[in-house]
Write a structure and sequence with these properties.
homodimer; about 375 residues; 5-stranded parallel sheet; 10 helices
Amino acid sequence: MSRWYGNNFRIGVLGGGQLGRMIIQDAVSYDIAVDCIDVDCSPCQNVAHQFVVGNIRNKEEVLAFATQRDLITVEIENVSIEALENLESTGKKVFPQPAVLKLIRDKGTQKQFFVEHNIPTSPFYLVDNKAQINAYLAEFPFMQKLRVGGYDGKGVYPLRNEAAIQKSFDAPSVLEKMVDFLKEISVIVARNERGETSVYPTVECAFNPDANLVEFLFSPAQISATVEEEAKKIAIQIISALNMVGILAVEMFLTKDHQLLVNEIAPRPHNSGHHTIECNKTSQFEQHLRAILNMPLGSTDIVRPGVMVNILGEQNYEGDVIYEGLDEILAMPGVYLHLYGKKTTKPFRKMGHVTITADTLEEAKNKAIFVKNTLKAKA
Amino acid sequence: MSRWYGNNFRIGVLGGGQLGRMIIQDAVSYDIAVDCIDVDCSPCQNVAHQFVVGNIRNKEEVLAFATQRDLITVEIENVSIEALENLESTGKKVFPQPAVLKLIRDKGTQKQFFVEHNIPTSPFYLVDNKAQINAYLAEFPFMQKLRVGGYDGKGVYPLRNEAAIQKSFDAPSVLEKMVDFLKEISVIVARNERGETSVYPTVECAFNPDANLVEFLFSPAQISATVEEEAKKIAIQIISALNMVGILAVEMFLTKDHQLLVNEIAPRPHNSGHHTIECNKTSQFEQHLRAILNMPLGSTDIVRPGVMVNILGEQNYEGDVIYEGLDEILAMPGVYLHLYGKKTTKPFRKMGHVTITADTLEEAKNKAIFVKNTLKAKA
């Protein structure tokens, strides 16, 4: 049987950032109306069919927004889950499901979920405040992660020695044993309502040490076939155990002794999947739409190798953004610009990304270094 | 030197159809605001930054629309050229230039231009009305083409014998000697303000005989390297002679004695370039933006072979569109859906297109036939 969502079908997205923006770009090709709710001047404001200025953490505002939309999804975890639970209980389709969002948004329950489901992850302790950290001094070093609300490198603090405790977060957090890793990798997996899953080839992330943000992403990851298979297996295991519908990003450490440890998961399109727009047969944004609309999932096959570079706001610049180096990078074949429509820059703000493709990953890496050194978001 | 168009830079597009819609999808990645003017319920209505309901053939309405935009382009030829000439004379950037639009929109002056510039084209006569056709009876058969206003297979009438004259157009038209061709091919070429040109590999078009509309498009064309080079040379020759800025589609016949004859040209993104979104390094829509913004032109290299299938409204159905077969076609890897957001269908209306990619063109062709037989726009 064939079906179509009809002319009046509307998806409502909580959040109006770059992830929503790229979902919308793909939704246009499917002729699906996508509406967003978020603060004024969000990246989706001029791109969504309808953009509602509102607070996605306010239950009443989310409920009001949802009443006129047929299916609700998110592009950020920090939303009113109470509103989503309420909507789900009245029969509204909400993907990812509120229970998944609830579990994942709290890095403490996320870790407990991994343990309960035999998902490999680094050892951890949960603390409620700064004072409790002292009890674990003997087991330092840790990464301290706020249980709720961290994003884009914020809400994470390294505890290497006792002195570091002073500047640590005085809030409920996870103390995670620091992992001596070889590589950080990420796997994007999708699952539709019928329970079909589809997993992308693994990618490799290189972080900016100053900002704890992904700086380069390499596709495919340079790992053994065994590790690749194991990483994919873990990703499918997690999304299946969550019974989740939508896209899930699974970030993992590959340790020096070749073990995989799950670091964090995110129940939405993810920075580590941006390259899929040009490098894979189906972009993660289209795949998210296919998953939540219960369509067949698209092929995740690699079309060409590539590198993704985040365009982060230059240090020491704040204000109306000016991009330097655009012409230089666009003169190179296989360079794809994605600006997020943010009018103002500040240090390390994610302003956009560039995907660089080439015949070989090595060639793409060389071009990516040029892009990184040439394209600057200044003010 | 680097530059950026700035947060307040706006492109104004005359026309709000599917071509504008796909320009906008790519403009989002460049963070360029694109506004459109066209009739109510056009495909761009919910996609453009600002959509103005208006008549693109009305001088005053076009002038009013243009005042608030920094650069004007078109996605259809049938616009108020008088308004564009007026704008250009006041220093506004208008690409393609009004003189080019004027020359091309009249198929008579288009043909004369080919002759003047030694561009190979089939012999023709210009007539002002039906009565004048009789003078050329001895040279039948002809294709009669309205000099102005034809599009999508409309405004074209085959004159095979005297009896056909009765149903012919009684209006200024071109009588073009029917060409005994082997293939119809198309070349897309771009030129920026600096005069740099970039040409796409040739594609092959297969027409629906009932509607005189492209039904399948194959990339790359199965032609000899000599013909390929000649076709590209002709396309560059034309855009250079026109001194045009933007994208130009050059449709040609490959005759049975292996000669190329230019059929028609179109100064905008074109149906025969839709496959470039997935099959080439730079899509024709991004290339159009690069050309009119005087950026470096993108690589036109083929990434993978592909077939484009137009989704035409099924015969005998008219009204609110329902798509049949979506799930079936989307279950196949390398199948890309592009719906144009038209709420109602009628026989042969272009509702969207599907691009099918595969490792070989042969494989893509087989999948394309399945797509053509499966996906139906009904009501």
